Amino acid sequence: MTAVLFGSCEKVIHLDLNSADKKYVIEATVTDQPGTAEVLLSQTRNFDDDNNFIGISGATVTVQEEGGVLTPFAETSPGRYMAPNLTGASGKTYDLSVTIGGFVFSSTSTMPVKVNLDTLFTTEELLFSDTYRIVNIEYQDPLGRGNNYRFIQYVNGLKEKQIFVQNDDYTDGRLNNSKLYYLPNGDSTIIHSGDSVRIDMLCIDPRVYKYWFSLSSNTNGDNNQVTPANPVTNIDGGALGYFSAQTLQTRTMKVP
Predict the structure, then answer these.
(1) Which pLDDT belongs to residue 128?
(2) Does residue 150 contact residue 205 with C-beta atoms inside 8 Å?
(3) Which CATH architecture has domain 117-213+248-254?
(4) What's the pTM?
């Protein structure tokens, strides 16, 4: 006779979160606005580390403009490199070079033609059984597919963590009215009447769009992957991150 005993017990499971080899992370932008060319250099963090930015000093950073002009970037604070005299132009290609600790990283990006952000307003939308104010943007996409956009939202000076990217695969040549939906949780700033809202519209190249789209998919769980993957970088040499030559325009409004 065999007796099977069922008991209630708790088993402690120890997760082996090994520290992965650190990789350099590069976030580099050149825009068509003066004083905005910037490169941020950091490293990946372990799972149990905080998310505070710890910059990597001592790098040699340059951007070469199509036509041969080479601009060095100066380190203004740990991990932050600036070139205030570098102002980009639509249609030109820029080559980034970052040398640090015996490693050389490079990337190329072409600045698209600027598309104007025409209108900015808010509407009330029902989200998860509650009503929230959502920013609406309007812009005229030019004829010819291949335009890619990123939007950055600030509410009372605070940058929204939600990633907003679009392309014209299904809206080529149309007047676009898009709503910048955000998740009404602790990571987002809820928009109220009287708030100041700022929207930055960036025209970006296709490889940079892929970076932000893949990052957004991983963040929001839209890619149906069991384990999130690193976003698709356009940087060669083994670093993570992106280099974007992009147009930049800003619109602000006070929410009624």
Answers:
(1) 82
(2) no
(3) Sandwich (2.60)
(4) 0.87
